[in-house]
Specification:
Blueprint lengths: L8 E4 L2 E4 L9 H5 E10 L2 E8 L5 E11 L5 H4 L1 H10 L8 E9 L12 E10 L6 H14 L3 H27 L2 E2 L8 E3 L5 E3 L6 E2 L6 H4 L1
Antiparallel strand pairs: 1-2, 3-4, 4-5, 5-7, 6-7, 8-11, 9-10
């Protein structure tokens, strides 16, 4: 069924479309990926652990919904993907960006029955970090500390934390060198690979340095 109006799909010469809203969606995500599990969700949309039918690899795919109005600008919809691509450039401590694309969706039908604005989903395909986040790492140790822990173990955690912060700062310096500002650095956006290496990710609030008054002088 159509994701927007729940109408039935039908196939015609032009391809697949919806009987009710005449939408002709791009189904790249549905065709190329299998959802394994949801990694996170929020006002921005969702992040999924996905298996690629194309190359057999595992990825994280972020799905961000954009409202398509008369003032809709494709360039603005791509902004987060551009930030991710510009920041990564195969840096050892930044989540690797692979590709991004837009898929237009069926218009939503409100209770009155008239169509409102259509939507487009921005899909950002990224490196899958299997080791969780720094937030989860901190929470686990907070719980253990409440139960009591040896001072030696606390020192070990402190040394680990210094190492994680060092790797995170290397990522920040790399971004600033390339004229990018993250603007949302927090434990939930610092990820771990399966080998324990740090990756800075989530560029939803990132911006170019020259878009902010006075930032260049600070950098």
């Amino acid at each position: 069924a159509c994701e927007g109006c729940r109408g039935d799909w039908h196939v015609e010469d032009r391809g697949t479309s919806c009987k009710r809203c005449e939408t002709h969606p791009d189904l790249r995500f549905e065709h190329d990926f299998v959802k394994v599990k949801m990694l996170g969700e929020g006002s921005f949309g969702e992040v999924w652990h996905c298996h690629s039918r194309v190359d057999g690899q595992e990825y994280a795919v972020k799905v961000v919904q954009k409202v398509v109005t008369e003032s809709f600008k494709v360039e603005e919809a791509w902004e987060e993907a551009q930030m991710a691509a510009g920041a990564a450039t195969d840096h050892a401590h930044i989540v690797r960006y692979h590709t991004a694309w837009l898929q237009y969706r069926c218009a939503h039908i409100p209770a009155g029955g008239n169509f409102t604005d259509k939507t487009a989903n921005l899909y950002i395909q990224m490196q899958l970090c299997r080791g969780g986040t720094l937030y989860e790492w901190l929470r686990e140790r907070e719980i253990v500390m409440k139960k009591g822990v040896r001072s030696e173990e606390r020192w070990d955690w402190a040394h680990e934390m210094v190492n994680y912060m060092h790797q995170s700062l290397l990522a920040v310096v790399h971004m600033h060198t390339h004229g990018l500002i993250h603007r949302d650095i927090k434990p939930r956006n610092i990820f771990f690979t399966s080998g324990g290496s740090v990756r800075l990710g989530d560029f939803g609030l990132a911006t170019f340095a020259w878009d902010n008054a006075g930032v260049n002088s600070v950098l």
